[in-house]
Design brief:
Blueprint lengths: L3 E3 L11 E3 L22 H20 L2 H11 L8 H7 L4 H10 L4 H19 L4 H7 L5 H12 L3 H5 L1
Antiparallel strand pairs: 1-2
Helix pairs in contact: 2-5, 6-7
Amino acid sequence: MPASKVTSIDLSGSPGPVEFDQPVNELHYALAWLERTPQLANPITAAQMSRTLARLLQEQKWQSGLTRRVYDELTRTPGRFPEMEAIAAALCMTSRNLRRKLDAEGTSYQALLANVRYALARDYLSTSFLSTEDIAAALGFSDAASFRHAFKRWTGMTPAEFRG
């Protein structure tokens, strides 16, 4: 089926000319629509979309700039998370400069490390049969109890509840 491109839609919602065999599908609408309150919005769908959009914005933030480069350094060697000084050196800057630039992007080394650990923990718990002690060791926690406390803080549930 050929791609179509809607080039305009007026405020009443009636479409303008439709162009077929275009490389992309686009929908153009009036900027004033952004200010309008949705009518007949389903509250469950609205809440789900709000969470999805927040997640997508967070992912987009992670895919650009220095934040992405630090994330890449943190995930480069599984089971070992380099200290901020080592990451700064790998990125040819001082740790103070790295801290300042991450702050400008709205994050920190500790927040990125926690996000990496959280993502790995979820993955380990949902795709493996590793014990919490093994997962704690793989994520660099001093013991299983520290891992369980961190996971409870991240998700509101224990690793065992998450697996169940």
